[in-house]
Amino acid sequence: MLLVYVRPADESRGWEKIGQTETIWDDLRPRFVESFLMPVFDDGSSLKGLRVEIYDRDGDGTNLDNQDFIGAAECLCQEILEIPGHSITLELEDPKKPRKKRGNVILMLDGVIPCDPPVSILFNFTASIPGVANKKLVLIISKAMRKGQWTPVYRSEEARGKVTTFDPCTISKEKLCAGNDLRSFRIELHRKKRFDLEQVGFFLSNLQKLSEATVGQSFRWWSPARGLQKSGVVLLTKQIEDTSMVFDINMSGI
């Protein structure tokens, strides 16, 4: 899990914790879904510093002293804003083990268009992918960022079956596409391995395309094994309201 702290421009206030991510178990390259809203001006003046701490959780307890500290990293918000793509890679450090490499962490900043009133999107996903029937699958939704980068905004539970049915996914429009109907996102399927995920395939869309699609319409599917397929994803049903949207989608990867 990862803890996030900010330091206001008034440095006398010190570090203030604004939250922590979900816990991702048994993954050596975790991509955290939890994000945090912060008021940051273009020059980074509203918040001076950003600090993250990463822990290897050994149980469900909340006492950090009982968890394994991996390392921490700090930077100025302005540093991230000045980098093309608004993404920075920092080396994790542990003062008690200064000579040992602790790994890296990638931090991204993204602007959000507020939705008033809020809009929620409900996805129902099923999958029947050749070659991975009855394997443990994880569904991830990733949002497009600057400079060709992607960041996960939703991660499902592990599911398996000849036809895999995932728990319904409810997500806000702000989190899915930063409030922008034209912002691309990917619906990705991954096979759960012992300490990592292996991508099975994905399809690319945006909220405007899905909203305008007709029931029964197919979308292109991409997989590492077969490349880009003309079909493989079908919109089964949809329901569009002013403050909510519902999409039922089947992925066959054929």
UniProtKB/TrEMBL annotation:
Single GO MF annotation: calcium-dependent phospholipid binding
Pfam families linked: C2
All copies of domain C2, residue ranges: 1-90
One BP term from GO: cellular response to calcium ion
Transmembrane segments: none
Family matches, as InterPro entries: C2_dom, C2_domain_sf, Copine
Entry GO terms, CC: plasma membrane
PANTHER family the record matches: C2 DOMAIN-CONTAINING PROTEIN, COPINE
Protein name per its UniProtKB record: C2 domain-containing protein
Taxonomic source organism: Compsopogon caeruleus
